[in-house]
Amino acid sequence: MNEIPEGGYDPYQPTVEYFTSKTEIMPLSAAPEPKRRFVPSKHEAKRVMKIVRAIREGRILPYKPPAEEDEADPAIKRYDIWANEVPRPDHPMNVPAPKLPPPGYEESYHPPPEYLPDRAEKRAWDEADEEDRDKDFLPTNHDSLRKVPGYEKFVKEKFERCLDLYLAPRVRRSKMNIDPETLLPKLPNPNELKPFPTTCGIVYRGHDGRVRSLSIDPSGTLLASGGDDGTVRIWDLRTGYQKWSVKLTSDEAVNVVRWRPGTETCILAAAAGEQLHIIVPQLVAPEREGGSSEILSRSRECVDAGWGYAANTTNGLPQKEPAAQWTRPSSKLQDAGVLVKVRLSKTIKTISWHRRGEYFAT
Q1: SS (H, E, C) the chain
Q2: Which of 30, 133, 283, 289 is most enclosed, with most CB atoms within 10 A?
Q3: Phi/psi at 109 (nearest 5 deg)?
Q4: How many CA atoms lie within 13 A of 331 on its CB side?
Q5: Phi and psi (nearest 5°) for 283?
């Protein structure tokens, strides 16, 4: 009884060692011990010196056990009311000396036959729980005192007592092993995230081979594309209709196309291999401000501004070969809207316009 702390407890489970070499999944803290745990505490030193000072001055006295009172103290009178007690008849005013009840016949090693239990009483006593029994023993008959055996439950009760002492100070401490998977939030399924495009709206067909670059003009109505076939095509973004195209080269792929920022002009930069082309397409989106002829003229003026004004003087120094050579393309390309061709020494991969469209970088 009381040897198990709670229901379902296994007394033979393996011992949980508090200091093991097992690496935890995620310890609560891996920080090193702070320095203050290894440095003597100044506050505790002050408290100890305060107590030592009080002991030296006599304000704190050591503990002295209280002196035993002398039983022969004449100031204290004691009376034994049952010292000269004599047998008296029962009377309400008579208080006899308290006595322990004498053992009954049931506790005798040779009780009378009427105190011995029969078979039904023995079976009922055996089937009953220990807590529900009226007595902790059954009267047993022995012929003589030397035939009385030893207490049969002596070893078991000693073991249960040792078990109680063993389990009393033990505390079950649950170690916290935090799984990193439980700390991360559960992300939703990408198939359930909406709104996002789930169906194909428009397909722009016309390029032969892979399309390498796309660019939408500032008005948001035109789409420029360049691919492996060396052509630059301009599409209507809403209908998918091809409005303009030009073939820049037959050997190189068009790696990048970029529109010039701003709606006052219509200028497109396209790079194919080591050549950069500045294009003014012969079209204008209807959403742009002003007429088509005015926007085309402003676009050509913007491209031609500064053309031919480069300084050719060398001041007597040897002239270096320029990093970029600006030339006019063929008449066929000029008629299609390609106004400038710039040749570099390396393949062009990116084009970045300034936000005001005054210059660009490759």
Answers
A1: CCCCCCCCCCCCCCCCCCCCCCCCCCCCCCCCCCHHHCCCCHHHHHHHHHHHHHHHHCCCCCCCCCCCCCCCCCCCCCCCCCCCCCCCCCCCCCCCCCCCCCCCCCCCCCCCHHHCCCHHHHHHHHHCCCCCCCCCCCCCCCCCHHHCCCCCCHHHHHHHHHHHHHHCCCCCCCCCCCCHHHHCCCCCCHHHCCCCCCCCCCCCCCCCCCEEEEEECCCCCEEEEEECCCEEEEEECCCCCEEEEEECCCCCCEEEEEECCCCCCCCEEEEECCEEEEECCCCCCCCCCCCHHHHHHHHHHHHHCCCCCCCCCCCCCCCCCCCCEEECCCHHHHHHCEEEEEECCCCCCCCEECCCCCCEEC
A2: 283
A3: -75, -15
A4: 0
A5: -160, 160
**Pairing assessment for the beta strands 275-279 and 231-236 based on DSSP bridges:** unpaired
Q: At residue 51, does pLDDT exceed 90?
A: yes
User: Which pair of tokens denotes residue 121?
Assistant: 């009483």
Both tokens assigned to 28: 């609560």
Alpha-carbon distance of 222 to 235, in angstroms, equals 6
Please count the residues of the chain: 362
Q: Which two structure tokens, joined as six digits, stand for 342?
A: 């710039």
Mean pLDDT of the chain: 83
**How far apart, in whole angstroms, are the C-alpha atoms of residue 90 and residue 87?**
9
Residue type, 44: E
For 125-150, write each residue's pLDDT tens digit. 999 988 888 888 889 999 998 999 88
* Contact (CB, 8 A) for 189 and 231: no
Distance in angstroms (rounded) separating the CA atoms of residues 278 and 358: 13
